[in-house]
From TrEMBL:
The lineage of its organism: Bacteria, Pseudomonadati, Pseudomonadota, Gammaproteobacteria, Alteromonadales. It comes from the Bacteria. It comes from Alteromonas pelagimontana. Pfam families: Rce1-like. Residues 125-213 form the CAAX prenyl protease 2/Lysostaphin resistance protein A-like domain. The keyword ATP-binding does not apply. This is CPBP family intramembrane metalloprotease. Keywords: Hydrolase, Membrane, Metalloprotease, Protease, Transmembrane, Transmembrane helix. InterPro entries: Rce1/LyrA-like_dom. The chain crosses the membrane at residues 6-22, 34-57, 72-90, 125-147, 159-178, 185-210.
Length: 233
């Protein structure tokens, strides 16, 4: 293992600690915080690609599209169903006050750090959707499902690679609290399963982006509708 790869692995393992320190110096402007988070992700991903391009990493390049065409069609169908489900949920939140209250309570249970990262204004929603969700989807899938899974799989085995990469993925979200570390690790297992089944990093990236967009949209619509209801009361 070369020095640069050791530096890369050290960066991935120490990133949660750095993130915890930076949590104490957050920007008051949420959009600025979104930019900071995205820049950090792209810097790490850029380092990853630099190491790969100069031949330091002994892994295969990611497979972009499914090798079987039917898996591609299945992925398209899966995303279409998810979009339909998301529209239904958002419509229910907007129209039904009881559903809206349940959503808002669920977010509060998630903890203050989790609530703070979710968008509340139109501008924040755009930044969260177009910048944070896309950056997290692209960068984290390349880091965890492509590189880290491949690295661990080479030295141990497939099952250990799935579990190990997912646990580290969960630890990257320590700043949200240990409850979210566990939840995110489970999501990591799901995304790893998607990556391996569809044999496509693009499908995994899109699934990750859709999940993040869903969370941001639910929070934004619930808060917006609740605010309008209180204003009209």
């Amino acid at each position: 293992m070369q020095t640069l790869e050791i530096a890369l692995l050290s960066t991935l393992l120490l990133f949660p600690l750095v993130d915890l320190v930076l949590e104490k110096y957050k920007f008051r402007n949420k959009c600025a915080e979104y930019i900071k988070t995205s820049v950090m992700l792209w810097v790490v991903t850029g380092f990853l690609f630099f190491c790969f391009l100069i031949g330091v990493l002994k892994i295969d390049p990611p497979q972009y599209l499914p090798s079987a065409s039917w898996k591609g069609y299945l992925a398209i169908f899966m995303f279409a169903v998810f979009i339909g489900y998301m529209k239904y949920v958002l419509s229910s939140i907007h129209k039904d006050a009881s559903v809206r209250l349940q959503v808002l309570k669920a977010f509060k249970v998630g903890g203050e750090s989790f609530v703070e990262i979710l968008p509340t204004s139109h501008k924040e929603f755009l930044f969260f959707t177009l910048l944070v969700s896309v950056s997290a989807g692209v960068c984290e899938e390349l880091i965890f499902r492509w590189y880290l899974y491949s690295f661990i799989e080479q030295h141990t085995g497939g099952l250990v690679a799935v579990i190990g990469s997912s646990i580290i993925f969960g630890l990257w979200h320590t700043y949200l609290g240990w409850k979210h570390v566990t939840k995110t690790a489970v999501v990591g297992l799901l995304l790893c399963g998607i990556y391996l089944y569809f044999e496509s990093i693009v499908v995994a990236i899109l699934a990750h982006i859709f999940m993040d967009v869903y969370s941001g949209s639910v929070a934004f619509i619930a808060r917006k509708a609740q605010g309008a209801e209180l204003t009209n009361a």
